[in-house]
Amino acid sequence: MKRVLTLLLCILLILCTAGCFAEEKTAKITSESISKEDAGLVLHFIDVGQGDCTLIESKGRFALIDAGERTESNKVVSYLSSAGVESLDFIISTHPHSDHCGGLADVIRNFDTAVLICPDVYTESYVWENVLDAADERGVAYETPNPYEFYQLGDSTVTVLSPKPDAVYSNLNDYSVVCMVEYGNTSALLTGDAEKTVERELVRGSYDLSADILKCGHHGSSTSTCSEFLHAVSPSAAIISCGENNDYGHPHRETIEILQSSHIPSWRTDIHGDIVATSDGNNFYISTSTDETRVTTPKNDNTPAYIGNKNSKVLHRATCESVTKMKDSNKVSFDTWDEAKKKGYTPCGACNP
Predict the structure, then answer these.
(1) Edge-to-edge strands of the sheet including 266-268?
(2) Comparing C-alpha atoms, which of 273, 221, 268 is closest to residue 247?
(3) How far apart are CA 135 and CA 116, in angstroms?
């Protein structure tokens, strides 16, 4: 009997501990601004058009994930300089597609970089060869991490979750380096172009995927952000990096709808420009280059997915800037685009439901 009681107490202790950990990972997305002194982690989602680029900043240390096409390298170098970057602790090249790695060569040539982290996958690409040449010229070391290896950056950690060293995929996107950035009780999951195959592998893995911010894979393509993965991450905000009126139709309608049906507000570089998420260890504050005061609200707050204008019959996403200019008496709420369409509403040009 004593053994049984001891076993029950152990199980109870484990469950309580797990509950504490779950609560610690739950942060709010808040409208309260954060002073520079209180900012332990800053994520800069830089608008590089139809591409990807994220600057991570923590207590005066910097790291970069991707740098868009080479045509965007001047903007990236300028942005980094304006942010106070003099050197980079590391660069992560998620995978050797030009819209992710194209600008890295110029970044490497302009900023001292300790190490270039990239997946162990080869592709014949002049753009990627240019990145490797720049790294060789500047004496930058290469590193291919294993899952769950982490890199310290200031007071934050960047943990690599994928790919596995022996991974074999038919799609280069799935070799993307996926990583979790954590500071205090806040976290963000950055997925490169990883698609549903990898997302499901991560769900089956042992790492806790829950994060306050999810950077949607593959620019919001329908090939990523599957329901199982989104449920596991359970973010309070989503970030999508894509170009205005891009040829791929990113973000795809399926991705927008799954975010809206889960009441997860999203920010897009094609609409909001540069997006900055700042953490004090308990909350994230999100600002954009088009609207410095726009912030997310916690999910499950019953915020409608769409707001329609009763007079003009124009439909907007709930986070659209136009909604703030409408009179409350002129607003009508819809949970889905199809619901609004049946009632004669047409989409706002900027929102594209």
Answers:
(1) 150-153, 156-162, 178-183, 186-190, 213-215, 237-240, 266-268
(2) 221
(3) 8
Q: Look at residue 315 in the predicted model and tell me its pLDDT.
A: 86
**pLDDT confidence bin for 24, thresholds 50/70/90:** very low
Provide mean pLDDT across the span 25-53. Answer: 79
Q: Mapping DSSP to helix (H, G, I), strand (E, B) and coil, where does residue 75 land?
A: helix
Written as one string, the DSSP assignment of 101-116 is: HTTHHHHHHHSEESEE
**CA-to-CA distance for 91 and 28, rounded, in angstroms?**
28
Domain boundaries, the chain: 27-288, 306-347
Strand (E) or helix (H) holding 9: helix 2-24
Q: Which residues of 62-78 are buried (b: 16+ CB within 10 A; e: fewer)?
A: bbbbbbbbbebbebbbe
CATH topology classification for 27-288: Metallo-beta-lactamase; Chain A (3.60.15)
Give 319's pLDDT tier (boundaries 50, 70, 90): low
| Contact between 111 and 85 (Cβ < 8 Å) | yes
Task: Give the integer Cα–Cα distance in Å for 327 and 123.
Answer: 54
Both tokens assigned to 23: 């609560």
Residues 6+ apart with CB under 8 A from 340: 306, 308, 315, 334, 353
